[in-house]
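User: Quick sanity check before I run a bigger batch. Here is a single chain. Can you write out its predicted 3D structure?
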Amino acid sequence: MKKNFFCLVLIILLGALCRSAEAAQSEKVPRIVYLTSFGAPSIRQFDAFRQGLKEFGYVEGKTIVLEYRYPKDNPEGTPAIVAEVMQNKVDVFVAADTTAIRALQKATKTIPVVMLSNQDPVAAGLVESLAHPGGNVTGVTRVTRELSGKRLELLKEVVPRITRVGVLWVRPTSLGTGNAFTNYEASAESLKIQLQSLPLIRPNPDIEGAFQNALKSQVNALVIVTHAVLGPHHKKIAEIANKKQIPSMCEASQQADVGCLMSYATNDAESYRRAAYYVDKILKGTKPADLPVEQMAKFEFVINLKTAKQIGLTMPQSLLFRADKVIK
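Assistant: Done. Predicted structure follows.
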């Protein structure tokens, strides 16, 4: 009788230990939160990040838990999203825009943050330096503003007659980045191009109104500055520009994919895949402060030939030869 009793107790204890071990194992699965501040993340970008994780051997739901969060109505709600997410353990944050990065900097000094920045992270105060970021933030910065002059040159090459270029951009706020419009001014002067500022206000940009101002100002080409708040509106912007037969230059290749005439930018998908490298390093024990910020250096020139035909523009053959991608 006693023997049976002790056997029963042993079985119960072994079962409890197994469940405890399984629970501990489950708790060890790292939780990665991908955060954006201006609506749902781009599927293309998010998928590139997920592909990067796969390349490092992570399996969603088994060896890693991956979720994305964003405020549905207003980027000002980002801090509340962060506070909610942090109620449960987060191993690494991936911040896909500057507003998200700043919200995380205010919320935590210990949870690692992998950033994807369109601006100079040192000048913006996001890190101490590229080589030694310090703190809990590191990641990838994409050269964007520095390519402003090259974009105007390409526009001038495609449409030599242009004299007035509209710059569609989002006004900065205390949560945002610097003035993107000023980056085009120096290059415009050397190319003898006048610029027309077409500012948009977040979180609900008046795109129709901006195009009305563009037509009143008689712009004959358009630069569309990349910004997270414009992500959901890329296709609409391209459609309006093409309908009004305005040649457009964009700052991200995904904008050319949905109808912008041209784009000149760092390889967008590659930068998101590269963010997975930082996540992998951090999960394996490297501190963010010891991971230098990487500046993406591979540029991609994309031409949308379908758009060129739609607006009645003949693309120079020399330019087509130089393009990394031609959308037909």
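The mean pLDDT is 87.

User: Great, the batch can go ahead then.
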